[in-house]
Design brief:
Strand order of the largest sheet: 2-1-3-4
Order of helices and strands: EHEHHEHEHHHHEHHEHHEHEH
Strand content: 5-15%
CATH class of the largest domain: Alpha Beta
CATH topology of the largest domain: Rossmann fold
CATH architecture of the largest domain: 3-Layer(aba) Sandwich
Number of domains: 3
Structural class: alpha/beta
């Protein structure tokens, strides 16, 4: 019987990453995120561990309960890069038996990562491994392009269900795609479907960028469905924090980092690590492009994002540019988040009206 492979949730990226998971066995994602996921993870995590650690540990426990026997943990560029080994030790202590692959141990080289997949399942040829990684990459980039359009159009839709239906059809087609041509066709069809939907109003919506730590920015359950809430308040949402940009950073190396640091000037003069520099750089870009504001999201205690906050506060103060900082932990309230988002959107509308009035 084939091994059952699973990995933590991160937005809708499971549909894109399945081709790589199938190199090791049958892919069975964890159940949808619920309060139980967080409670399970928090109960068995070190108290000082960040929110992504607790959510992903809860995902892995629920995957094991579903019968998974091979777990894959991506890790990250901050201390999350060491979480795979810690989570493996916790799960072993809880009595589970499983195989474990921490991608962060091989993230410095795509070739080393592909060799690890070959080692874990010798029946895979290098050609099959290469094709699986290429297909997963194509799906990731297609997913990010379509979801960027989805975020920008959701606030304008006459019926949100129509946009959601087009998005769900795309996810199903992307999941079943077996080659790059099918991925491209699914992307084109989804983009056309979303663009063709009738807008509910002619007014120009507020434009807000979302920046911050990659897990909390991407996983909607962890940020209390922030982007959905913004769309319901008539906000066109933009987010450059995606797995596509993570891949660009990995393959771009020092050149990518230098470009981001340059974009963060004059508020940063050097790289402060992982997503912190991007938070400042992308906020600076959104401000220059005339956006109405930015929402900065992070797990409580995230050092790179905490380091970015003085630069963001300076940018906001010197340019009178609105930046809402939201910090999430085990005790964060969805009602509290909704209240702050509603107040922020009201403030942005008043600011726009005042600026338009002063111009006239």
């Amino acid at each position: 019987m084939s091994p059952v492979v699973s990995f933590p949730h991160l937005g809708d990226y499971a549909v894109a990453l399945k081709p790589v998971g199938r190199l090791l066995g049958d892919v069975v994602p964890p159940p949808p995120m619920t309060r139980r996921t967080l409670e399970l993870g928090a109960a068995h995590s070190p108290e000082a561990a960040c929110l992504p650690f607790k959510y992903t540990l809860g995902n892995l426990i629920e995957a094991l309960e579903r019968g998974a026997d091979v777990l894959v943990q991506a890790g990250g560029g901050c201390r999350l890069g060491f979480y795979g080994e810690v989570q493996e030790a916790i799960l072993c202590r809880l009595g589970y038996e499983f195989g474990f692959l921490a991608l962060s141990n091989h993230s410095t080289s795509l070739r080393a990562l592909m060799r690890e997949f070959k080692r874990l399942e010798p029946r895979n040829s290098y050609r099959a491994v290469s094709r699986a990684f290429a297909l997963a990459s194509a799906k990731v980039y297609a997913l990010d392009r379509v979801q960027d359009l989805y975020r920008r159009r959701l606030c304008l839709a006459e019926d949100l269900a129509d946009v959601d239906a087009a998005h769900e059809r795309f996810l199903a087609e992307l999941d079943s795609a077996e080659d790059a041509a099918t991925v491209e066709a699914a992307e084109s069809a989804a983009a056309a479907a979303i663009e063709s939907l009738t807008p509910r109003r002619d007014e120009e919506p507020l434009r807000v960028g979302v920046v911050g730590e990659v897990y909390v920015a991407i996983e909607p359950y962890s940020n209390h469905r922030l982007e959905r809430q913004l769309a319901l308040h008539g906000v066109e949402v933009h987010r450059r924090v995606t797995i596509s940009h993570v891949l660009d950073a990995i393959f771009g190396g020092r050149r990518f980092v230098d470009a981001v640091v340059a974009e963060a000037a004059p508020y940063l003069a050097y790289d402060i690590g992982i997503d912190g520099t991007k938070s400042v750089a992308y906020t600076n870009r959104y401000m220059r492009e005339g956006f109405d504001g930015v929402v900065h999201v992070k797990p409580f205690g995230c050092m790179p994002e905490v380091s970015a906050m003085p630069a963001l506060q300076r940018l906001s103060r010197e340019n009178e540019f609105p930046v809402l900082c939201l910090s999430f932990d085990v005790h964060a309230s969805e009602t509290g988040t909704a209240t702050r988002i509603a107040a922020f959107c009201d403030m942005l509308r008043m600011r726009r009206s005042r600026r338009c009035g002063s111009r006239s």
